[in-house]
Amino acid sequence: MHAGHFIAVYPHESTRFDPMNVNAQCYKCNIFYRGNVAEYSARLIAKYGQEEFNKLIARGRTIKQWSEKELIHLIAVLATRPDDYEAEYRSLVS
Of 36, 57, 67, 69, which is most buried by a Cβ count within 10 Å? Predict the structure, then answer.
């Protein structure tokens, strides 16, 4: 399994660690089918809904330069309060 990114992380970086953007993906889909975007998008919409999917697309078009402090904070949240990660992440990219 791979950590498949729906939206490529370069050059904007805003969705690199986005929990909605990073999902388990098989090697074949991620490498040979270049992410299998049609299937990936359909599954994201089914899981999160069209409105959240559109917000992900918008986040993917924004530029984010991560500071060391922000990354250390996200790692700490994952280690101690994983259920809070998504909210913490959103607060840093908003």
Answer: 36
Whether 2 and 27 have beta carbons less than 8 Å apart is answered as yes
**Model confidence pLDDT, tens digit, residues 30-75:** 999 999 999 999 999 999 999 999 999 999 999 999 999 999 999 9
Is the distance from CB of 40 to CB of 48 less than 8 angstroms? no
Cα atoms found within 13 Å of the Cα of residue 32, Cβ hemisphere only: 4
What's the pTM?
A: 0.85
- Give dist(CA 21, CA 5) in Å, integer: 5
**Is the CB of residue 44 less than 8 Å from the CB of residue 35?**
no
